[in-house]
Amino acid sequence: MRRPTTITAGVIAAALALTGCAGSADSSGSSGDGSGAVSFVGPEDPAVFAPVIDAFEAAYPDITVDYTQVPFDTYATTLQQRLSAKDDTIDVFAVDQPNLAQIAAQGFLEDLSDLEDEAKAATSAAQFDINIYDGTMYALPVWNSTQMLFYNKDILDAAGIEAPSLNPDERWTWEQVAEAGAQAQAAGIESGLLLEQAEAYYQLQPLIESLGGGSGITGDDMLTADVTTDGWVEAMEWYGGTFESGLSPRGVGGFQTSAVFTDQKTAFFVGGPWDIGGFADADFAWGIAPHPSFDGGEAVTPTGSWSWGVNTASTNKDAARTFLEFVALDAAGNLASTETQTIIPANTEAAAEYLPKLEALGGDNSAGAADLITYEIENTAVARPVSIGYVQFESIINAAIADIRNGSDAMERLTQAQQQIEDAWSQLR
Amino acid sequence: MTVSAPRRSSVQRRSSQRHSGRRRPSTRRSVLFIGTTLLAAVAGIAFFAPLWWSFVNSLRPGSETFRYLNPLQWQTFFTLTPTLDNYTALLDTDLSRAILNSLIVSVVTVLAGLAVCATAAFGLSAFRFRGQGLLFSVVILTFLIPFDAIAIPLSDMFRDWNLQNTFVGLILPGIGNGMAIFLLRTFFLAIPEELVEAARLDGLGWWGVFTRIYLPLSRPALIGAGLMLFLFQWQAYVWPLLMGTDREHILGPVALSNLQGQFQVDYGVLFAASMVLVLIPLIIILSFQRYFIQSVTTSGMK
Amino acid sequence: MTSLARGAGTANRRARSRGARSWMRGPAPVALLFLLPALIALIVLRLAPAGVALVDSLYRESLLSGTTFVGLGNYLELFANPDFQNSITVTLLFTVIVNPLQVAAAFLLAVLFTRKAAGSRFWRSLVILPIAVPPAVSAVIWSVIYRPDGLGNGILAVFGIPPQSFLTSPEQSLMSIIVLLSWIGVGYWMMFLIAGINDVPGEYYEAASLDGASAWRQLWTITFPLVRRPLAFVLVADTVSNFLIFAPVQILTKGGPNGSTNLLMYDIFTRAYTFADVNKAQAEVVILVLITIVIVALQFRLLRTED
């Protein structure tokens, strides 16, 4: 239809974005900035988005943004219900990136293909790809994430363990971490290691992929489950073993895991950039190191966070898009979205400005965080698979991870999960 | 009107005389009294301990929540340095607005719900007519249906009626409560026939029988049903999320859940918020306790 | 003693039905008038959406290939699914344990709190209070109690009992959930039984005391039969409520470990809201309602044959 013009506009926009004036590029769009009220739905505290909304309203006085928070634990399900009811009280909404395919396949997300070039220029490759479903771009990435190894320096010193290096080339292996953790336990610490989201696919995918196990979803339509590969079984057996041996504590879930680290009950902790802010007030010395990989395996880190998209049922799409572009493509706008929340901006330029501030949060403890995060995002990040069946997949795999943590046999449990996923997906076809 | 309110004093006198006729009544009675008190206190404290723990932690910074779990120590259940920081932090959230909304929704639900459910229970207990059993079965059936499961089709209906983000949309589902009807019917059935017959002979209409005999004689049941209706709304979570919760219509449980972010949770603030949310039902339960001592029906008539 | 209490109940009832018959012509329209507002509310707010759910359960809506009529297809698939079979087993096991346990505990507590004791009203308020705790918070509190290094094992250690696995083992998880739910619900159900016990005329106890009946005998021969109706209410209401519970499971165990806490209502909730497989979820709802009807009907029958 109007593809030629938009592509030209896109190229110009991309060029402008490269020179850092993406914010002023919107006006060249064919549809105009729009005006009126934009209602935006997300899972965060209103205080998190207040700065970006203020900045946006200052830049576009004709548009106001009303934010509604939906609790995180029921965000995806609530959104699913309201979007499928063609609820036009939602204009812009935050999309948990791995859920994008399912939402897009149901037609709830506006096609944003005309912004593809701008988006590609504004963010990392992994963060760009994750918004594409079936060849079409449906959302713009706003936040990004990664994981790193935190260690309690006081505990390591007391146990006579040399702290892991910050250099990605000298990345510790999981075997090394387990050994050092056990050593710390021998010196009197309750636990050696704990992964923050101990029962989440997001957290375990890098272990599996490090051993070449694959994401678990394959096939042309990305609806073939493949969770019993050698890599899956080996990684999950190792993971189950860390709980069996007592290296990691069972039964500590949700948000109680990071407290295990701050209460000095574990030597090592795998967590995200938000923990740098969370650990800032700790009264012991800690440090960060690259996310471990398996001995002889590949270095893989988790990535991905939130994108934002426009509801197809929205009655104020122009203004909605203007807001979305401001938050995702304008470096200043994107940066404003991370003013109160410790999270990595998806916009590369915003991230470059943000990361040093993040690093400073933890003082000496988190020295080197900015370079480490940048390195991981560019080199080792592997996104979660894009599939319309991801939601079911994740729920079933998380249950399997939890069971393996509590002592189930990895091979048996994964075989069961394979069957459960196939059952759940049969209703999608 | 020949019917009078239950004579409470006579009941109390009778129950205190229960154990007379024993050989050493006073010693035995005081041993029993102390024993019962001890058991009652142990039960009360056992049920309260988990709440007390979260109350103590609402007075502590969230970073200390899990510090004194095991082995048990006095700090597990007490703190020498209480702080109200968690409570002041709540002032920046939507919680006060949400509590106000929840109160509006719950109180309206209780008033309207009691009117609807008590009349229905009266219709099912004071009369005998063909089809009554069937109607009672229908009432039972309605509360066997899991509300959270039919919330999806019901929310579609409500959206068609443009009730999203309205108080009416939030209140309505709480009004028809089959379980409350069942409860009230149970207690209405205990009201002696003779009482009604006498009142009818005195020329009292059915509405009069309902308002002047059944309602005053069923206070504990009405309070129970009221609490049932109240808690349905006070703890409503799935439904308000489906109906859309803009900031003008946010309810308590949703605001509480909003405190649990996706990256971190400040358990101190979370517990503070839940203490605030528990406070109102606590006041209600405590203040209605005195009605529970009344013996209402049989003895009041004799 | 038994004959006195029972006799009073039946005589009352017989008089009622005899009297009722003579009004037969008159009262039905009036009764319906009293019932009308509730019936409208229940039909619109409960039965109509339930009807929609019933119809939905006969269809299948696929993300990629649209809506088709499948008849009982969803039901057949469910019954062939080992996870669903397990869910039914777990739910029935749960029902058999949790309901007698909670009703018995509620009854004993109600008896305790209707005896004379210092501060009785205050103590019983504390027992009722947990029903008012938001489910999200009670789940957090109990996750802390059930942590292997948590309060539960701390208290057990005081009594010299070795640490238990609680929610992390399939053997203890369901029982742990039952204890949690009892903490929430027992005081609430107790409240209705207290109201019932207070309805028992004091004369019965006086007569029994004069006959020399022990307190324990009085409990079983007077209190128990005379609070039968409130007990029936509590048993039925508690059973139904326990069928519909899912929040603690959702927050604490997600049905695990190894499906040991995968209650039907949680399975329905996950299927409807997480998997967005609404049609099959509605089929599960229909099955759940049918199971509940059977059990509740059974309870009504049992309680009826008792007199």
Automatic annotation (TrEMBL), chain A:
Presence of keyword Hydrolase: no
Position of the signal peptide: 1-24
Alphabetical UniProt keywords: Signal, Transport
Provenance organism: Labedella endophytica
PROSITE patterns assigned to the protein according to its UniProt record, in alphabetical order: PROKAR_LIPOPROTEIN
Protein name, UniProt field: Sugar ABC transporter substrate-binding protein
Alphabetical GO biological process terms: maltodextrin transmembrane transport; maltose transport
Domain of life: Bacteria
Pfam families: SBP_bac_1
GO cellular component, as recorded: ATP-binding cassette (ABC) transporter complex, substrate-binding subunit-containing
GO molecular function: maltose binding
InterPro entries per record: SBP (IPR006059)
Family named by the database record: Belongs to the bacterial solute-binding protein 1 family.
UniProtKB/TrEMBL annotation, chain B:
Species whose genome carries this gene: Labedella endophytica
GO cellular component, as recorded: plasma membrane
SUPFAM superfamilies per record: MetI-like (SSF161098)
BP-aspect Gene Ontology terms: transmembrane transport
Classification via Pfam families: BPD_transp_1
Residue span of region Disordered: 1-27
Similarity comment: Belongs to the binding-protein-dependent transport system permease family.
Sequence ranges of Basic residues compositional bias: 15-27
Segments passing through the bilayer: 31-53, 98-122, 134-155, 167-191, 221-239, 267-293
Name under which the protein is recorded: Carbohydrate ABC transporter permease
Compartments (UniProt record): Cell membrane
Membrane-topology descriptor: Multi-pass membrane protein
PANTHER family: ABC TRANSPORTER PERMEASE PROTEIN MG189-RELATED-RELATED, SN-GLYCEROL-3-PHOSPHATE TRANSPORT SYSTEM PERMEASE PROTEIN UGPE
Domain (ABC transmembrane type-1) ranges: 99-288
Superkingdom assignment: Bacteria
Keywords: Cell membrane, Membrane, Transmembrane, Transmembrane helix, Transport
Biased composition, class Low complexity, residue ranges: 1-14
TrEMBL record, chain C:
The name this protein goes by in its record: Sugar ABC transporter permease
Statement: the UniProt record of this protein carries the keyword Mitochondrion: no
Residue intervals passing through the bilayer: 88-114, 126-146, 174-195, 231-252, 285-303
Pfam families for this protein: BPD_transp_1
Membrane topology: Multi-pass membrane protein
SUPFAM superfamilies cross-referenced by the UniProt entry: MetI-like (SSF161098)
Compartments, as annotated in UniProt: Cell membrane
Domain ABC transmembrane type-1: 88-299
Family: Belongs to the binding-protein-dependent transport system permease family.
One GO cellular component term: plasma membrane
This protein's UniProt keywords: Cell membrane, Membrane, Transmembrane, Transmembrane helix, Transport
Claim: Cell membrane is one of the keywords in the record: yes
Gene3D superfamilies reported for this sequence: MetI-like
Any one of the GO BP annotations: transmembrane transport
Organism superkingdom: Bacteria
